[in-house]
Amino acid sequence: MKNHSDSPDQLAILQKKLAGFGEYSLRKTYYPELQQRLEELSESEAFLKNIVDNIPAMVFVKEATELRFVAFNKAGEELLGYSCEEVLGKSNHDLFPKEQADFFAQKDREVLAHGELLEIPEEVIRTRSGEERILRTKKIPLFDSEGNARYLLGIAEDITDRKHLEEQLLQSQKMEAIGQLAGGVAHDFNNILMVIMGYGNMLKNDLGLGTLQKEKLEHIIEAADKAAQLTRGLLAFSRKQEMKTRVVNLNDVVQQVEKFLVRIIGEDVHLTSHLDTPDLLVKIDSGQIEQVLVNLATNARDAMPKGGTLTIETGLLDIDELFVQVNGYGEPGRYALVSVSDTGVGMDEKTKARIFEPFFTTKELGKGTGLGMAIVYGIVKQHHGFINVYSEPQIGTTFRIYIPLMEMELTSDEEVVTPAPPKGGTETILVAEDDSAVRALVQEILAGFGYVVIAAEDGQDAVEKFAAHSTAVKLVLMDIIMPKKNGKEACCEIRQLNPDVKVLYSSGYTLDIIQSRDVLDEGAELIMKPVQPLELLRKIRELLDR
């Protein structure tokens, strides 16, 4: 630590006073003592400098009149990028932007005026390179023998990395909170959607309906299905949603999405696409990746209020160790790349840094939830991929998504085929469901395909109903979480009566809630709500035919 020392001036004054004693007397009597005192003073100053320079925080001293630096330690040099010589004698306004310098000077004056320690939990300082660091600073007045504040001592700890860790923890907690919120409402919400979708599909097959009525029903079913996709997307964001993955050509998914993106983006936005010619085979949940593209397109549309161009591109990318080191993300391997670009207003660095945070939005109150990009991030991560964003204000934005490439050919088994209509039956099925609307819907669906249905409203009721019809019941459709007895407990008692009975669990809760409550046996058959009637019928028939 360097400072302005008074020692040379004191020596000169002492030498002048001693000059009259004669050169011989001075050398013989005073020089040895003076030399010893100077050496002790030098050692003491070096010792103090060594201590202060080894403090892992910026330490500085300013004089009280013009607030110019008179001392500055090594940690300060490393933090700010200025040498001690460049700082000494300078003021705040000589080193920092005006807004920061005014703030520092204001706090300095407060400390000197009140004569007591001031702690500043967070303050931003710009270094020589232009980087902004976050400091936790203590400022302390130093008094002379008469009690006047002559200097100001400052000790500033760089907490930038700690703040970043806190922000990461906060984001993790936000994600967990959304996961808990989604899990808490998913069960009831999915039950409602199942009723809407179920009765909608049943009405669609009513021969008495006219063409116009059927078209309206299609819109209702489509809206309910989109609501179900939104729920799955929220759960994917928290990485707690079971995905239905299969190997597909990413180009096919993009082309499928393009068909309805035109309606989403409006007439003022021109949509173009450039798809890589080779097959880009990826193992994905197509519905969720479609949701990603829709969210990105919607975001792009909102960024182009006066119109512009939305471009979707696909490609193949080999990522090596050098790429990872240079760019700071990803893992080595082959990836399918899909990019979504717009010519909109773009984003500044602060917005770009927070774009994937849950509940963060730049839209007006009531016009954005702040979940769209968070859902995109979660879905991509759940697919073992990664996403980054490039943006320039008033130029535009590009999101690039990397999904691991599958090194295989698309076989006929993996191609999309229209499933055959489900077969009915005459078997007796026990339906245990605590939601009366869902219970009535399932009864009607199964009865419509010839099955005999026995309904139970909770776990205990299911055990009692099964005991009364144990030889007749061939399959139990069991909600997992119910009053009185959960599905696992009820199933355990039912299998004591008939170990061979088939059981199909259903639930609208998230997988993490199911697993945390230990209400599902390993390897048990499970179907997640909301489920389309035909899908439910196919699954029941599959189990009965085993």
How would you characterize the overall build of this protein?
This protein has 546 residues and is of the alpha/beta class. The protein has 4 domains: 2-162, PAS domain (Beta-Lactamase, 2-Layer Sandwich), CATH 3.30.450; 168-237, Orthogonal Bundle (Helix Hairpins), CATH 1.10.287; 246-413, 2-Layer Sandwich (Heat Shock Protein 90), CATH 3.30.565; 428-544, Rossmann fold (3-Layer(aba) Sandwich). Helix content is 47%, strand content 22%. The chain has 18 helices and 18 strands. It has helices at residues 7-18, 23-53, 74-80, 84-87, 92-95, 98-114, 160-204, 211-237, 250-265, 286-302, 321-327, 349-354, 372-382, 436-448, 459-468, 487-497, 511-516, 533-544; strands at 2-3, 58-63, 69-72, 118-126, 132-143, 149-158, 246-249, 269-274, 281-284, 308-319, 333-342, 386-392, 396-404, 428-432, 452-456, 473-479, 502-507, 526-528. It has a 6-stranded antiparallel beta sheet with strand order 1-3-2-6-5-4, with helices on both faces. A 5-stranded mixed beta sheet has the order 8-10-11-13-12. The protein has a 5-stranded parallel beta sheet with strand order 15-14-16-17-18. Strand 12 (386-392) and strand 13 form a beta hairpin. Helix 10 packs antiparallel against helix 13 (372-382). The longest helix has 45 residues, at 160-204. The protein is elongated and about 125 Å long. It starts with a strand and ends with a helix.
